[in-house]
Design a protein that fits this description.
CATH class: Mainly Beta
CATH superfamily: monomeric porin ompg
Helix content: under 10%
Distance between the termini: 12 Å
Largest sheet: 12 strands, antiparallel, barrel
Strand order of the largest sheet: 3-6-7-8-9-10-11-12-13-14-15-16
Radius of gyration: 16 Å
Structural class: mainly beta
Number of strands: 16
Order of helices and strands: EHEEEEEEEEEEEEEEE
CATH topology: Porin
Number of domains: 1
Strand content: over 45%
């Protein structure tokens, strides 16, 4: 499975996060006609996703199955107070010669680290840029005292411009939330493969209204990633 642009997301972050970080498969497109099962492991010096801080560092593991144009998979990562486990599935197709995908992604967490995020994804690779959209997203959080569930609707959009289009080995991505989650992010990313190991560097800047804790809003961040697939 490969990322639409990049990554990887991947995309800036997604593109570079371990073997194209198949965790966020909503931003991925499988190679046409491919099939089989693959696995990936990865390390991030800091874990940021969509401009939101997740953990000081993180080790990840994922598994993916491709059946022609369909894909399904899972991705797990340790976060500061628990484990993130994602489940995703989708379908790859072409529309007027443009590679596209449509699918579902669910982000879940143990030990009350965060609420649950579930969304429908769609995107396309136009060559000079790729567009990834999380539409009809729902964030469910549970009040620790009353146990009441609060739901918030959101959308998230990523536009990535590959650096090679401008003669540079660095990709640029703009990411933004709309709806009841807020914030936007700029990211620059570089990735390469050394002896079969994916190596990535990401530099990002989020906005002062970014979703997440106050200490990590309006912040410039950088991370280093390693990934290997088999």
């Amino acid at each position: 499975m490969r990322k639409l642009i990049k990554s990887s997301l991947s995309v800036a972050l997604a593109a570079l996060m371990s073997v194209s970080m198949l965790s966020h498969a909503g931003e991925a497109v499988a190679e046409e006609g491919s099939s089989g099962v693959s696995y990936n492991i990865g390390y991030m010096s800091e874990y940021w996703y969509r401009g939101v801080y997740q953990a000081e560092s993180s080790v990840s593991f994922g598994a993916d199955m491709e059946m022609g144009s369909m894909y399904i998979g899972t991705w797990w990562a340790d976060v500061d107070n628990g484990v993130e486990y994602d489940i995703y599935a989708g379908y790859n197709f072409e529309l007027m010669g443009v590679p596209m995908y449509a699918g579902y992604t669910g982000y879940f967490y143990s030990d009350n680290f965060d609420g649950d995020y579930q969304e429908l994804n769609i995107g396309g690779d136009f060559g000079f840029m790729s567009v990834d959209a999380a539409v009809n997203g729902v964030y469910d959080s549970v009040d620790s005292s009353s146990k009441a569930i609060t739901s918030q609707g959101y959308q998230h959009y990523t536009i990535t411009v590959p650096g090679l289009m401008m003669g540079m080995p660095i990709d640029y991505s703009y990411q933004t939330f709309t709806g009841e989650l807020t914030g936007f992010t700029h990211e620059l990313s570089y990735g390469t493969t050394v002896s079969g190991v994916d190596v990535g560097l990401t530099l990002g800047k989020n906005s002062d209204d970014s979703t997440g804790d106050a200490a990590n809003k309006d912040t410039t961040y950088a991370n280093f990633t390693l990934g290997y697939s088999f």
